[in-house]
Design brief:
about 280 residues, Muramoyl-pentapeptide Carboxypeptidase, domain 2, four-stranded antiparallel sheet, two-stranded antiparallel ribbon
């Protein structure tokens, strides 16, 4: 059965059967405490529908049972063993990471176009599973709780980091590019890079999901000029998240009981720019 699923996946995605053995070396970032712990393992996920005007690929495999899709949506699977994911070459990233194959393919196309315009795009963070997101969350929680009550501690983390099970980084469609500071993109080379992305990223299916809340009607995280999502897939993940995930699924980490009170699904999972749906 696994062989049959793999066959249909590769036949559908096309031109994506080459696996890259060179991956990025470790480097520091705001979220340097990522680890290689994996939670569970599932077969491939094929839930996305493409815009045929951009991606003329048809006859996608049937969606897997909801019980398997849920694991992908909340990060409880091993992306290093999932056939939809691939290790990113060191040419494109700052440390070892994985992305969905199609996300990676389109990023490489965007990277090549940017390079011709004198813009260098480097991925700082890609896919993170539940365990990796939990490590980030609980490190920040333990620091904050020393001087804050639990609600304030959680809200402070949620300015820029997700609760485990609610992160778009679980999906392999989202990435952080070039810097994790908005100030970097305000002038000089950083501004040039950001202006290029705003003008060109949509041509390759990417969208800045966390825009300036003072200029949009969205809720949730603060602006992140570095966070770009591959919408042809992530929009379908978001749709499935809203269909299948509830607050009973947000558990297994410190502070998880606060998720309903903080409206983690309504304000954070769904708190993206309206142009990115």
């Amino acid at each position: 059965m696994k062989s049959l699923i793999l066959f249909f996946s590769l036949a559908t995605l096309g031109l994506l059967t080459t696996f890259f053995t060179s991956s990025c070396g470790d480097s520091d970032s705001h979220e340097k405490e990522l680890n290689n712990n994996s939670v569970g393992s599932t077969n491939q996920l094929s839930i996305h529908k493409h815009d045929d005007t951009l991606f003329p690929i048809k006859n996608f495999p049937k969606i897997l049972p909801d019980s398997l899709i849920i694991n992908h949506l909340i990060g409880k699977f091993d992306y290093t063993k999932d056939t939809n994911f691939i290790s990113v070459s060191s040419e494109y990233c700052s440390k070892a990471m994985y992305l969905q194959k199609e996300t990676y393919k389109k990023f490489k196309e965007m990277h090549a176009a940017a390079k011709k315009d004198g813009v260098r795009l480097t991925i700082l963070s890609g896919t993170r599973n539940f365990s990796e997101q939990k490590s980030i969350w609980e490190r920040k929680w333990n620091n904050n709780i020393k001087t804050m009550d639990s609600i304030k501690a959680a809200k402070t983390i949620l300015l820029y980091s997700s609760m485990p099970t609610t992160s778009r980084h679980h999906w392999g469609t989202d990435m952080d590019i070039n810097s994790l500071e908005n100030s970097y993109f305000a002038s000089g080379q950083g501004l040039k890079e950001y202006e290029w992305l705003k003008k060109n990223a949509s041509k390759y299916g990417f969208c800045q999901v966390y825009t300036d809340k003072t200029k949009t009607s969205r809720n949730g995280y603060e602006m992140e000029k570095w966070h770009w999502s591959y919408i042809p897939i992530s929009s379908q993940y978001l749709k499935k998240y809203n269909e299948l995930i509830s607050y009973k699924d947000i558990k297994g980490f410190i502070g998880s009981v606060l998720a309903p009170r903080l409206k983690a699904i309504e304000n954070y999972v769904n708190g993206i720019d309206k142009s990115c749906h």
